[in-house]
Specification:
The structure holds 2 protein chains of 2 kinds. Chain A is mainly alpha-helical. Chain A is built from 5 helices and no strands. By secondary structure, chain B is mainly alpha-helical. In chain B, helix 6 packs antiparallel against helix 9. Classes of the chains: A mainly alpha, B mainly alpha. Chains A and B meet through helix 1 and helix 4 of A and helix 1, helix 2 and helix 4 of B.
Chain lengths: 101, 218
């Protein structure tokens, strides 16, 4: 009987830990993902100031964004996480094809 | 029987929640990736806890904290829980829309579409943990010596799992995860040293072939 209570307690703690970790990881990724609003605001500020943006490494199209993301993904896990977050909106069949394996 | 029912309930809950949410995300969202990362960290924590418990039992430290029979029972239960979360860790990748994981790339080492080498170490660690867990079930058939040798695979599983987590994990930069790895390594290393340096006759209570509660129960 005691053993069953012990197992139930352990299983409960582990399940709670899993749920907590899942939520924490999601919140961390949400917080670190670049926000589209921020990007457009910055672009607007540059235009308003009359400055010419330097030759930007920023991808111009969703497909090139996906390509850049795939390149970043091949480097480090952290870069992968960032790339996943960045490329997510571009999703697209093209993105998946270019990531391949 | 009750233990099996509880285990099935636990595994079923995890599988249902994880699989359901992953499917709801349509296979292209990041939810499956989150589940994989979370279950990987939980599996590593469980593996650490089980290695620590095993070392505590073999050094005699565990006897002061928990009755022998409960320690053995918990040891077996943690090993199964570890395998359940390993299954979720690998299984959820099949629903990930970013990398093209297949059952083959999840089960076979070094063929993963993501960080093949470091992910491969994780696959080897998983299989090692599964062999150790299975060896307990067939201990009476394979004999004490073979079981004991197979049990040393748990150290390999632990080290490989840590290397896999540090090198392939997306959360290695998170302070809490770094603390987990450091704390885990510190605890296991300390207990391992205690075990190695402890007098040999004080840590082999079952070497004579006596059936332990673990062997009797399974």
């Amino acid at each position: 009987m005691t053993t069953n209570w012990l197992r139930a307690g352990v299983a409960g703690i582990v399940l709670a830990g899993f749920a907590g970790t899942w939520g924490y990881i999601r919140s961390v990724d949400d917080a670190s993902a670049p926000q589209a609003e921020t990007v457009s605001t910055l672009a607007g500020a540059v235009t308003a100031a009359g400055a010419t943006p330097p030759a930007s490494p920023t991808p111009a199209s969703p497909s090139s964004a996906a390509t850049s993301a795939a390149a970043a993904a091949s480097t480090t896990p952290t870069a992968t996480a960032t790339a996943r977050a960045t490329a997510a909106p571009a999703t697209a069949p093209g993105a998946r094809t270019s990531r391949g394996s | 029987m009750r233990a099996s029912a509880m285990l099935a309930l636990c595994a079923g809950t995890i599988a249902t929640v994880s699989g359901g949410l992953a499917l709801r995300a349509g296979g292209t969202g990041p939810e499956a990736w989150y589940i994989s990362r979370a279950s990987g960290l939980v599996a590593f924590t469980l593996l650490t806890a089980n290695v620590v418990l095993g070392l505590s039992m073999s050094t005699g430290i565990g006897k002061r904290l928990l009755a022998a029979r409960m320690s053995y029972d918990l040891h077996g239960f943690l090993s199964v829980l570890t395998l359940v979360f390993l299954a979720v860790h690998g299984g959820s990748l099949l629903f990930d829309g970013f990398f093209a994981f297949t059952p083959l790339t999840v089960l076979v080492p070094f063929v993963s579409p993501y960080a093949p080498f470091w992910t491969g170490l994780g696959v080897v660690a998983g299989w090692s943990a599964a062999i150790v867990a299975a060896s307990v079930r067939v201990r009476s058939r394979v004999g004490y010596r073979t079981w004991r040798q197979l049990h040393y695979l748990s150290f390999a599983a632990y080290v490989l799992a840590m290397l896999h987590g540090i090198s392939a994990g997306s959360d290695t930069a998170v302070a809490g995860v770094q603390a987990l790895y450091l704390g885990s390594a510190g605890l296991v290393t300390t207990l391992l040293l205690v075990r190695i340096l402890a007098p040999r006759n004080s840590r082999r209570p079952t070497a004579s072939g006596a059936r332990t509660p673990a062997a009797q129960g399974r």
